[in-house]
Design brief:
This protein is α+β, with helices and mostly antiparallel strands. The chain has helices at 82-94, 124-143, 149-163, 222-228, 235-255, 258-277, 288-304, 327-338, and strands spanning 15-28, 33-34, 38-39, 43-61, 71-76, 79-80, 105-113, 175-178, 192-194, 206-211, 309-312, 318-323, 347-351, 357-358. It contains eight helices and 14 strands. Strand 2 and strand 3 form a beta hairpin. Helix 2 crosses helix 3. The model has no long low-confidence stretch (mean pLDDT 95). It binds ligand DP6. Ligand DP6 binds next to helix 4.
């Protein structure tokens, strides 16, 4: 039984907490889940810097907390958003057994992204990690239960995972692994762990320029995509492959072996999309422009020897990954040859970041 109940005989000053949390880009993909948001294979991501969500969670004591439901107002970019509100209400309700104090409060969430909503960038990782961090700050403020920084981050990662699997990796600076693997001591299916201290310094100065091929809503959501893995004939070999690749990628990232890094990362991106194409029903999220960009990136690498690699999320946009020392050359390559394949010429520049911050 949770002890996290406020003493209602005591007054509680209204207050608020505010976190900025980044998105992340998976290098080894989480694709397939079971139980309560548990991954079928371990995944590894870079934590980004520029693509962030700011979330403010305000609270005051509820006048009538007797019923077992969450009282919530939700504003996205200053506008009330009923669809988001309902999703968050369902999420907070699911947390009540662990955080019963939430139903003693009237909550207001104000949230906004640093990137335009039309940019076609998935915001669930930044949004759910920012909210999870707010919830942990609240718990710690009321009950002092998360004083230890590691315990705080671990709980934030668990709560983020329950909102959206990939969000649990955004809690940590530079890079994180989610999912139990012998390769990373302390790793778990329930939360991500930081691996920034296990990777070559070069990867902390890495760029991820996101080429926006389309900003349209995906035809098949990630949630539906994960579910389709259950009937996919390649599911089991895929999960085994992800484990092998994670071990290989970690080796490459420890030693700073860029060609090995790039090969695994690109293979992972194409595997993710191949899995979608051989799902039942089959679907494709890549667009002709995504492929045109991929071809040009391969050619550019062959022509210049520059170590620039691509990855894809569950969508048509292409992420260009490259070390900081190449930034001038690669940005020129993008401008001259890749922007023409982007919707409205849109490119969201991002890079490996320091993780969330409380504002
Ligand atoms: C392709 O984390 O968005 O980006 O847990 O259902 O919210 P839910 O899915 P989500 O899936 C992300 C899938 C991916 C790969 C990854 O980020 O690892």
């Amino acid at each position: 039984m949770s002890r996290l109940i406020l003493d209602s005989s005591q007054p509680l000053e209204p207050g608020s907490v505010l976190w900025r949390s980044p998105s992340n880009i998976a290098l080894i993909k989480y694709w397939g889940k079971h139980g309560i948001q548990l991954p079928r294979n371990p995944s590894l991501s870079f934590t980004l810097a520029a693509s962030c969500t700011d979330t403010q969670l305000s609270y005051e004591l509820r006048k009538d907390p007797s019923d077992n439901h969450i009282e919530l107002d939700f504003f996205f970019h200053e506008e009330e958003n009923e669809a988001f509100r309902q999703k968050i209400e369902a999420y907070l309700t699911s947390l009540l057994p662990d955080m019963p104090f939430l139903k003693q409060l009237k909550l207001t969430i104000r949230s906004g992204n640093s990137f335009p909503h039309s940019a076609g960038i998935a915001s669930s990782a930044s949004a759910m990690s920012a909210l999870a961090l707010c919830l942990c700050s609240l718990e710690d403020r009321f009950f002092g239960t998360l004083q230890d920084a590691e315990a705080f981050d671990q709980k934030a990662s668990i709560l983020a995972r329950l909102g959206s699997g990939s969000a649990c990796r955004s809690i940590f600076p530079h890079a994180a692994v989610w999912g139990a693997t012998q390769q990373v001591p302390g790793s778990s299916d329930e939360y991500a762990v930081p691996i920034g201290n296990q990777i070559h310094e070069m990867f902390k100065d890495f760029h991820d320029d996101i080429l926006i091929v389309s900003s349209e809503e995906k035809s098949v959501s990630s949630r539906a995509g994960h579910a389709l893995m259950e009937g996919n004939p390649y599911a089991e070999p895929r999960y085994a492959q992800a484990r092998t690749r994670l071990a290989q990628l970690l080796d490459a990232m420890r030693t700073g072996d860029l060609p090995a890094f790039g090969k695994i990362v690109e293979d992972e991106a194409l595997t993710l999309h191949a899995l979608m194409m051989c799902s039942n029903p089959s679907y494709t999220l890549m667009r002709p422009e995504s492929l045109a960009i991929i071809e040009k990136v391969r050619q550019y690498r062959a022509d210049t020897g520059h170590q620039v690699y691509f990855t894809l999320d569950a969508g048509p946009n292409v992420h260009l990954l490259y070390p900081g020392e190449l930034v001038v050359d690669v940005r020129k390559f993008i401008e001259d040859h890749l922007e023409e394949h982007c919707e409205g010429g849109h490119v969201q520049q991002d890079w490996v970041g320091e993780g969330p911050e409380e504002l």
